[in-house]
Amino acid sequence: MKVAIIGAGKLGITITEALLGGDNEVTLVDKNADLLQKVGNQLDLLTLTANAKQIDVMKELKIWTYDYLVAVTDNDEKNIVICSFAKHLGCPKVIARIRDPEHFRQLDFIKEAMGIDYIVNPDLSISNEIYKYLVEKYSLSGGSYASGKIAVVEFSTDKLPVLIDKPIHSVSKILGDMLVTAISRNGKVIIPKGDTVLLAGDRLYVLGLDEPIRKLNDIVHDKDQYTDLQRVMIAGGGKVGFYLAQKLSKFGVAVKLIEIDRARCEYLSEHLDNVMVLHGDATDPNLLAEENIDEMDAFVTVTGYDEENLLLALMANQHNIEDVVAKVSRKSYAQLIEKMGISMALNPLDMTATNILRFIQGSTHIIFSQLIQGQAEFIEIAADHHMRMMNIPLSKLDLPEGVIIAAIHRGDEAIIPTGSTEIKEGDRVIILCLLSNITKLEKLFHSKRSKFFQ
Q: Whose CA is closest to 369, among 435, 292, 413, 440?
């Protein structure tokens, strides 16, 4: 597949790395020559130093020979114009990153008028995941998800205390023919190994055949889908804070939104209904105390600074708030997050890259994709003979860290795989992958020419 990426920022490079991992031909375009030279020295791709808003640049690229164009510069209007030009010049599919809430109110019109096939909004995606977590209390709809004869259920070990302090390799004796595919612990989703010990408060994602999973679901889940969420404090009145406050207030939650910029506070007050907008520094303990942080059911920190979000999350934890959610973009902070006891940490870069890749691959081997806590995803792929992972025992596949082959549909048969299981042509394979390892996941779909499996 041939893809043009416009914008060599963090998102553009993440998408580029993932697509190159899947044996695609990628061209990266940016006005920053030094940045492109650095990327070109690290990756095997074509780069072009140019302003993609110029028609001559599009013609020089022969954009009509590409399958996709992805515009992810830091400017919404530029992304819209670039996609429109590319579409009119014959590029079959164009994707734009658009973040401004003003644009999002007229999204359908923009897509139709400008010929854009797919729009991603990192801030809206983050707010949707936080909303889903806080309101439904489950990352999977109703606590479970089914695909064919395979189902996944999510629950806390507190609902099944017999699992607490047990290593994964002994859990099968308790759960039977089911697989603990992932654990959410202190805000971080991890892929467990055989010696991983389950702890009190862990949230488990257990996969198995549909009927046993549904019976387990009846045991570990309450009938009520929604929580008694009443009061939420949000630190940061940027786009994520705006979208989240809007959704929570419509649901009937009392929201307090703290923003340090006065002009932004005025905008928020004008555009948000039934939300208390507070002008102040969210890191000020006196302000938090005055606004009754101890009475909050949840605290969400989505400022533009990772360090500030981590500090605020730590402060909220000290007030024993049940749910503390933080937006953290730097992958280097992953270990720190786990030690801080945050309920949920989300990386907008990983989520947006995943959304774009799934759209690009939707017409090929991806059957479905289901995010869990905004940090990992279940995907189901259609296996074909070109893939290097075919006809090899799973134990001999050098699977990337953070990737697990969880189940296989083979005709009418559903298989929970073991180390000796082999993937055959025509299988529908369910894979769980951490979004942070998305570039490694794409290598699973390499053709047999790849050096990935040797």
A: 435
